[in-house]
Amino acid sequence: MSFELNAVPLLSRSAVDRAEEVRSDEQALKGGWAEARLLRVNRRGQVRFAEGALVLDAAVEFSAEPSPAAVFLGIGEGRHLWAVRDNELSGELTDLRMLAGGIDDFTAGLLSTAVALLNWHDKAGFHAADGSATVTAKGGWSRVTESGHEEFPRIDPAVICLIHDGADRILLARQHAWPKTLFSILAGFVEAGESLERCVEREMKEEVGLDVREIHYLGSQPWPFPRSLMLGFAAVANPEQPLAFSDGEIAEAHWFTRAEVRAALSAGDWSAQQEGVRLLLPGSISIARTIVESWAALD
User: Fold this and answer.
1) 3-state secondary structure at position 167
2) Strand locations in 122-249, DSSP E?
3) Hey, how many other C-beta atoms are within 10 angstroms of the C-beta on 108?
4) What is the pLDDT of residue 267?
5) Quick one: pLDDT at residue 247?
6) Under a CB-based contact definition with an 8 Å cutoff, are residues 217 and 200 in contact?
7) Residues 71, 84: contact at Cβ < 8 Å?
8) Using DSSP, how many helices (H) and how many strands (E) does the chain show?
9) Which of 74, 129, 188, 294 might form a disulfide with 203, Cβ 3.0–4.6 angstroms?
């Protein structure tokens, strides 16, 4: 029984105008700096949040002109939007995971882009080929060496897959570090020289020992922890095949009925600490929740 996502994943709903044409226009970047707004993000991905919105400072309070430490995120309400790493943040701090479903599309897009881009810059100070120092260019969307070698932000693709039996059951698993009642669908990084479909087959076999078939793409979501892209799939497996946790990441996995999953969805998410609850599912920030909800909605 195939299905499609019944909603766009939270972090895929960005309403930010990324204004790519402005990145290479130094005069435009300088001209917009006077009225620009700046998002400050610490190394934990935390930002200031007040009265239901991100706190954005005047960019000129940080520097008179666009700073090499800042990254251009796009344009909102006619103003340029930038982000910068600031580990001295104080006040009411929050992050994407804590905000979960309580943010609008603009905030989701702005914050997920800022976190991913700044995370890349933290690790990209030297060129991978010769070790030479790099500096930011194009509003923070590339880094170049003195000799002109240019590198662009790294994105690490990962698959996330809901395994079902073609009827009324899905397989949910728990990692060792998770609470005893928190389960989710399975995920893993794409390897070099590997297609997405083959990655689904390999990861599902490695993590729970199942041979999957009828692999079906569902949708994607940025996942800036630190700079991934989650590609969602569904696949069918035989529930009679023995489970095997060969790569050591999974502590346990079980088949759950649609009724059990619906009950868990109605109970909330992983943050709900309820007595006697057997199953808790990821929060709305993750595409895993959207995938499970879409499968559970089938008649």
Assistant:
1) coil
2) 134-137, 142-145, 150-151, 156-164, 169-175, 186-189, 213-223, 228-236
3) 23
4) 86
5) 85
6) no
7) yes
8) 7, 16
9) 188
